[in-house]
């Protein structure tokens, strides 16, 4: 299993968790804490603090997701750097124009300057 595959599995898992945490929250301040009746007073088990936990877990999961995406990009770029193919010597000679001693270029390598 390649490094990129491991990163992709982790990215999908963290993204799923992030979606679940966001879906539990209510944008108008209700969310999970209002479901348990923790409107204005402190109830059993500290239900009012669930919004703090959900907020911190959202930011933490978002940061982890961003870091995993960047690391997966680095693993792709590090593993598949482009390699230049070396031309065979005969093709290389045909692509470089020949020069005589005066510094002017000639079109052929035979030395026949007509």
UniProtKB/TrEMBL annotation:
- GO BP terms, alphabetized: intracellular protein transmembrane transport; protein secretion; protein transport by the Sec complex
Q: Name one GO cellular component term.
A: plasma membrane
Membrane-spanning residues: 6-24, 58-78
Q: Which Pfam families match?
A: SecG
Q: Where in the cell is it found?
A: Cell membrane
Ranges of compositional bias, category Low complexity: 99-114
Q: Per its UniProt record, what InterPro entries does this chain match?
A: SecG (IPR004692)
| Coiled-coil regions listed in the entry | none
Where do the record's region annotations for Disordered lie? Answer: 85-114
* Cell division found in the keyword field: no
Q: Cite the entry's keywords alphabetically.
A: Cell membrane, Membrane, Protein transport, Translocation, Transmembrane, Transmembrane helix, Transport
Output one GO MF annotation.
protein-transporting ATPase activity
Membrane topology note: Multi-pass membrane protein
Q: What does this protein do?
A: Involved in protein export. Participates in an early event of protein translocation.
The text of the family note is: Belongs to the SecG family.
Query: Under what name is this protein listed?
Result: Protein-export membrane protein SecG
């Amino acid at each position: 299993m390649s490094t990129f595959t491991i990163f992709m599995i982790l990215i999908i898992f963290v993204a799923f968790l992030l979606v679940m945490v966001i879906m539990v929250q209510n944008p108008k301040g209700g969310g999970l804490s209002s479901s348990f009746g923790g409107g204005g007073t402190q109830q059993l088990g500290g239900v009012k603090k669930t919004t703090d936990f959900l907020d911190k877990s959202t930011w933490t999961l978002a940061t982890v997701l961003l870091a995993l995406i960047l690391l997966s990009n680095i693993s792709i770029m590090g593993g598949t750097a482009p390699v230049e193919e070396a031309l065979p010597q005969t093709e290389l000679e045909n692509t470089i124009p020949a020069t005589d001693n005066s510094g002017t270029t000639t079109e052929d390598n035979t030395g026949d300057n007509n």
